Amino acid sequence: DGGITQSPKYLFRKEGQNVTLSCEQNLNHDAMYWYRQDPGQGLRLIYYSQIVNDFQKGDIAEGYSVSREKKESFPLTVTSAQKNPTAFFLCASSIGGPNQPQHFGDGTRLSIL
Amino acid sequence: GQQLNQSPQSMFIQEGEDVSMNCTSSSIFNTWLWYKQDPGEGPVLLIALYKAGELTSNGRLTAQFGITRKDSFLNISASIPSDVGIYFCAGQLQGGSEKLVFGKGTKLTVNP
Predict the structure, then answer these.
(1) Which residues pair with B48 in a beta bridge?
(2) Range B75-87 average pLDDT
(3) Contact B42 A50 (CB under 8 A)
(4) Residues of chain A whose pLDDT is less than 50?
(5) What is the DSSP letter of A27?
(6) What beta strand segments (E) does A1-113 contain?
(7) Alpha-carbon distance A108 to A91, whole Å?
(8) Is the CB of residue B99 less than 8 Å away from at least one CB of chain A?
(9) Distance from CA of B37 to the nearest CA of A (A)
(10) Distance between CA atoms of B46 and A30, rounded to whole angstroms?
(11) Cβ neighbours of A101 in B, within 8 Å
(12) CA separation (Å) from A15 to A19, A34, A83, A84, B81?
């Protein structure tokens, strides 16, 4: 089945530790996105990539890094500079271009030990 | 960043009742999307709207793209317990990139 797969579902990190969240899609979508969701908040864009080997900062990029070496994969690294504790991270993809809806994975919940 | 005002923030209804929620903005949008999110899961696309005035249905769900292009509403008719969840509106700004602006969500509770 085509879709977006995020892993792991739950992730724990110690303070000062970098962790990487995986996002893979087999929809042949050009564009991929990372969002952070906090309770009672809408989704906030961290980074997005419209094409392989290119990505742009979103609204809350500080403390995060990404890469887009393959069309199917858009991993997100949460660095030790990111101080906020538990959050829910969502990856999405779209065909690309305007007026194309984004489709989401099932998310990764990151907690601080 | 841009803001979408989504209301109400939460709703508590009885099974069988109809539900209405909306999103408004001071900015003009080219696309309106409505998503539903279950706890611990990712949002699922319900309805996509692309033209001002467009009215689209998906089963018991109906959504409209406002004539001014600054608002959209979602109606759910004859609610059932599995309608429980958080509903998000999202829009793509006129002249903007393909980035989405999200509302803060409407949490729906349906009492059997």
Answers:
(1) B33
(2) 97
(3) no
(4) none
(5) S
(6) 4-7, 10-13, 19-25, 31-37, 43-51, 54-57, 64-66, 76-78, 87-94, 103-104, 108-112
(7) 9
(8) yes
(9) 10
(10) 22
(11) 31, 33, 45, 48
(12) 11, 22, 8, 10, 41
For residues B41 and A9, give the distance between their C-alpha atoms in angstroms, rounded to a whole number: 10
Distance in angstroms (rounded) separating the CA atoms of residues B36 and B23: 14
> pLDDT band at B1, cuts 50/70/90?
low
Neighbouring C-beta atoms of residue A95, cutoff 10 Å? 15
Burial class (CB in 10 A: 0-12, 13-18, 19+), A70: exposed
Tokens representing B73?
A: 């509403």
Asked whether the predicted pLDDT for residue B111 surpasses 70, the reply is yes
CA-based angle A10:A16:A22, to the nearest 5? 35
